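Whiteboard transcription, Tuesday session. T.W. wrote the structure tokens on the left side:
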């Protein structure tokens, strides 16, 4: 999944977002993405010489390396799904571990909702139903793979210009254990407003993701 940084053109003036651990910029991929060879299909074949986004870690440390490895492992398990944002590969950019994702030409669900809240246009029931169905379709796929997202929120749901939903941000995602649960062993920064009650005891599962989905609704 490694991509040489020389093949990645980072557009520093186009910042998608900033967080406590990373910054996301628009980019352009001047090669073929490794995901297209690991999961060959019509959808992944388009990931070559294409727009992308790059998530650059704020620190160059062993913890950041572990986070990148974990996120890559989750992405490899996911492969490609029409309602999940696809990881194209990873690199080291300016001495920082970085992840390269597919470019989504719309904003995120939270921004979309705020745009309508401040305008005169009305969000129809059909639009709401379409959004919610696509989220459930993507999350059902993740659940079938034994993956818990742990940070399902409107800010992490991207929308294309053709109104297609893409679930993103797998920084906290984990694989379930044999009992279909995930027990967190470390203290992480977690999205408290979206967390199920049992998650305050560091227990996560498909059910806790469903709770977060309820908050989105």
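and on the right, the sequence the group agreed on:
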């Amino acid at each position: 999944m490694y991509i040489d940084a020389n093949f990645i053109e980072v557009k520093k003036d186009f910042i998608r977002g900033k967080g406590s651990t990373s910054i996301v910029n628009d980019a352009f991929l001047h090669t073929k993405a490794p995901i297209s060879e690991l999961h060959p299909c019509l959808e992944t074949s388009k990931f070559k010489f294409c727009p992308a986004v790059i998530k650059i870690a704020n620190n160059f440390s062993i913890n950041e390396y572990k986070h990148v490895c974990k996120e890559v492992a989750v992405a490899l398990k996911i492969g490609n799904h029409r309602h999940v944002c696809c990881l194209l590969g990873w690199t080291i950019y300016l001495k920082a571990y970085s992840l390269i994702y597919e470019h989504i030409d719309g904003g995120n669900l939270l921004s979309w909702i705020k745009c309508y809240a401040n305008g005169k246009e009305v969000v129809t029931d059909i639009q709401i139903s379409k959004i919610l169905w696509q989220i459930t379709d993507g999350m059902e796929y993740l659940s079938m793979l034994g993956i818990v997202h742990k940070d399902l929120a409107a800010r992490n749901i991207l929308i294309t210009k053709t109104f297609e939903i893409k679930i993103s941000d797998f920084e906290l995602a984990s694989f379930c254990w044999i009992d279909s649960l995930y027990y967190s062993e470390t203290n992480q920064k977690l999205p408290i407003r979206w967390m199920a009650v049992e998650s305050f005891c560091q227990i996560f599962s498909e059910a806790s993701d469903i709770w977060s989905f309820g908050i989105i609704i």
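Someone added at the bottom: The chain has a mean pLDDT of 86.
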